[in-house]
Design goal:
Elements lengths: L1 E5 L7 H11 L3 E6 L14 E6 L5 E8 L2 E7 L3 H7 L9 H30 L4
Length: about 130
């Protein structure tokens, strides 16, 4: 689950967007290093993103793709839960890993979609 959202001019930096979401969203909001994609910034350091968290299993990650566009991705914020229930990025997986991955996705997809839409709605309120 992923979406691109145009953000209004006053909120077009990570810090300003973080402050607004922390005050107005009603969800737990934090600014963290992007350990889900391991992106780097212009200085070669690990890039930061905003995590808007609904529960231990449901959150969205916000990052700027350009000056006023935010990319919103569904993530599992808990690192341990992400290891078990997150999407596998291994090049080769055994048949057991493929089957359990399909079962996890089938069980989690509806609740993840609902949480994503709810969290995305908060961000769309800041849209241009």
């Amino acid at each position: 689950m992923e979406n691109l959202i145009q953000i209004k001019q006053p909120y077009n930096s990570l810090e300003e967007l973080y402050e607004v979401l922390k005050k107005e969203s009603g969800f737990e909001c934090s600014k963290e290093y992007d350990v889900w994609e391991h992106r780097t910034d212009t200085s070669g350091q690990m890039a930061q993103c905003i995590v808007l968290k609904k529960s231990g299993m449901h959150a969205v990650k916000l990052l700027f793709v350009n000056e006023n566009t935010v990319k919103v991705n569904h993530i599992i914020p808990n690192k341990l839960m992400h290891a078990y229930f997150g999407k596998s990025v291994k090049a080769r997986r055994s048949i057991l890993e493929v089957i359990t991955g399909a079962i996890k996705q089938a069980v989690l997809v509806k609740s993840q979609q609902q949480a994503f839409e709810e969290l995305e709605g908060k961000i769309k309120s800041l849209a241009a």
